[in-house]
Amino acid sequence: MGNLPSPSAVVWCSHQIRPARSRLFGDGSHFFDLRAARWPSKEREGSAIAGGRGRFGSRPAPGTLKVPKREALTVVAVVALAVVLRVIYTLAAEANPTHLQPAMDSLFHLEWARALASGEAFEKLEGRPFFRAPLYVWMLAGVLKLTGGSLLAVRLVQSLFGGATALLVYLVGKRAFDSRTGLLAAFCAATYWVLVYFDAELLIPTLIIPLDLLAILLSLRLACAPRPGRAAAAGAIWGLCAIARPNVLLFMPLLALWILLRPRSPAAETDGRRGPLAWVAAAAFSAGLLAPILPLTAHNTFARDDFVLISSQAGVNLHIGNNPTSDGVTAIVPGTPGGWWPGYHASIALAEQAEGRPLRASEVSAHYSRKAREFMLNDPGAALALLARKLRLFWNSWEVGNNHELRFFARRFGSFVPFLSLGFPFLAGAGVAGFFLASRKRGEHFPLWGFLPVYMLGVVAFFVCARFRAPVLPILMIYGAHAVFWSVDRLKSGRAASALAPWALAAAVGGFSFVKPSYVKADDSNGWMQLGTAELRREDEVAARESFERSLAINPNNLYALVQLARLEREAGRTEAAVEHLEKAVGLHPRKTDGIELLLDTLLGAGRHADVLNVAGAYARDYPGPAIPHYYRGRALAELGRMEESLAAFDQARRLDAGSFRAALACGKVAGMLGRLTEAAEHYRSALALRASTQPAWAERAFAGLVEVHVRAGQSAAACEAAREWAEALPASAAARAAVAEVCP
User: Fold this and answer.
1) pLDDT at 169
2) Which of 96, 268, 353, 666 is the one with CA 20 to 30 A from 207?
């Protein structure tokens, strides 16, 4: 029979017939046209037919679980390779100080998971709805509970997730095309260095990637038999994906529409009716989707008194990626500090300041969503340029770091990893070529190909980094493998010209990806800076200094390396060296406040009050927005005994930054020193209203000041009430208990 399809392929195909008028999601008939009663021409053959020549090329009939022994052994070997590579990398990366001292998002996940594992509430977010989708943290908490809190054990368990990713890539590739496509794509997934790297990090990609693939696999099964049970199972897995990373919800309406509109049976072909099954399957899919989500919504609504579907961070992230100062990468709300918790609280304070009232989490999110929309509507040209920039970043070969510079840490602590796999330019080029080559199967493949553009838009609508892009890598691998075997089959059949044609597109896409735009800092400077910061957290100042110096040797203008090196010089008592580094940082990056704040603090600590007043005055004149120079000017004036001027400076800092706890606290202290006790009490109350309880040492000072001014004013009842509030807010505080005993009858 030569190139004719097997009888099992004809049986499989009988489920794929589409009426001529159904074109919304494409024509799925690919093997045999029963209406025309003829085999497809040579030009219409797809890779699934041509693949029948190879040992791994044939497609089993629907429901067939039998896999050739050699193929099964190959799959097992690929999955084992994926796990082994990840275990080797994880063990090697134990020398990485960022693994021992997690920071930013990794630390946030770890703190939350440790609280859950110990059966305690996560106090930093207590009383508010979920800020971030919780599924990964729940998984992390479970593993910590079972392993006694070992981070190495967590990462070894995540190595198994990498094996699951390789297996699921094989299964999706096989169902969409054929076994050899699935195997090649699975090998790429097993060895691709970015996936190896993320499976050793305390971040969401290690869980969301296999979940996405499982959801796509179950959805592809609906192309042949959209049974309600299958549809509900697919929906439930997509629901789990949503409570790990909610942006997959953008794809769900299209997927439900695909289930609803695709005809299902020969009877539907002949009479044009879709029958009730499509409606039942779509309803079952929707019910399955909502099953994991609604409990979170109910928790947020009833336990936290705030209607939030899953998590409340969407509005903040939308504003981060869509504002006049956004670079499409930096994950910091404009006007807030860079640390995770300082930035979180400052973003809430800024929103409440703008709205003039306390806000629930959903209202904070809505506030920032409005700001993002205003930017897009008021300056559409800038918004479109920023969107284009983010699209370019999404398809660029450089893996944009968010928590860390991926390539730097992967090379330094697992030197073999980046050299095991093909680069992103080849992956992107081959994947896009395969994407277009498979257009004839667009109907049955919609859960696979539709995920790619919709998910991409869901990323670039916010901001771009490597861990957000990671879920599309397996999809590109599957389509890339399809492109390879499509060309191989045509070369074997003597059609060299058609075999090579798709690779012109692949070369164009790969070349576009390979060329890095000027705003991509493709060097190791940030990696050394991040390594030095991690060394500081474990108090290895010698190694930290070396790392910062190596960072500056690569990029002398690296702001954060300059600031951190200045911090080390200051702690070593070398004030002049610290000031020199900080003056350079401020001169290079005047609008980033890290340098000016540490410079003023260093000058103040050295008793150089005149220099503080001069530098703060000049900075405030040239850059009038930040509150920092006014705050430090107030401190210098207070130390010089110029209290009225000091209070005016602190008051100016409060007007510029109503969320500044320290400015409100300073206003209270100075007002109290001037004998303005009522005013001082108001300032202390304002400070405490800024959720200062997340920083107990600062809250202690505000409560102590409030009790003191009430006592000085002869307001015994108010003093007692403040002391009791103090003890309730900070139950571990000995000073609070002493205050209650002293001022309460």
Assistant:
1) 97
2) 96
Q: Which residue from 245, 154, 244, 137 is spatially nearest to 199, judged by alpha carbons?
A: 154
Q: Which residues of 686-696 are buried (b: 16+ CB within 10 A; e: fewer)?
A: bbbebbbebbe
CA distance 190 to 185: 9
The pLDDT of residue 444 is: 85
Amino acid sitting at position 8: S
Say which DSSP state 598 is in.
H
The residues facing 64 across adjacent strands are none
The residue type at 537 = R
Give domain limits for the chain: 7-53, 69-309+400-514, 523-606, 608-657, 674-745
- Whole-angstrom Cα distance, residue 506 to residue 671? 69
- Sites in the chain below the pLDDT cut of 50: 1-64, 265-274, 692-693
Collapsed DSSP state (helix, strand, coil) of residue 737: helix
DSSP assignment of 33-65, as one string? BTTTTBPPPGGG--HHHHGGGSTT---PPTT--
CA distance 698 to 686: 13
Task: Summarize pLDDT for 519-561 with one digit per residue, the tens.
Answer: 777 788 989 998 998 888 888 889 999 999 999 999 998 888 9
Q: Which backbone phi and psi does 38 adopt, to 5 degrees?
A: -145, 155
pLDDT value at residue 695: 64
The reply to whether 674-745 shares the fold of 523-606 is: yes
CB atoms within 10 A of CB 160: 17
pLDDT for residue 500: 85
User: What single-letter DSSP state applies at residue 4?
Assistant: P
* CA distances, 88 to each of 93, 209, 308, 345 (Å): 9, 21, 41, 39
Of the candidates 591, 521, 577, the residue with the CA atom closest to the CA atom of residue 549: 577
Instruction: Give the fold, CATH level 3, of 674-745.
Output: 1.25.40
Rounded CA-CA distance 274/663 in Å is 67
Q: What is the pLDDT of residue 50?
A: 37
Amino acid in position 577? A
Phi and psi angles of residue 33, each rounded to the nearest 5 degrees, phi first? -95, 100
Q: How far apart are the two ends of the chain, measured CA to CA in Å?
A: 101
129 close to 311: Cβ distance less than 8 angstroms: yes
Judged by DSSP in three states, 289 sits in helix
Does domain 523-606 fall under CATH 2.30.40.10? My reply is: no
Contact present, 130 and 298 (Cβ < 8 Å) = no
Residue 189 is predicted with a pLDDT of 95
Which residue has 């977010």 as its token pair? 125
**Phi-psi category of 597—alpha, beta or left, where left has phi over 0 and alpha has psi -120 to 50?**
alpha
50 within 8 A of 57, measured Cβ to Cβ: yes
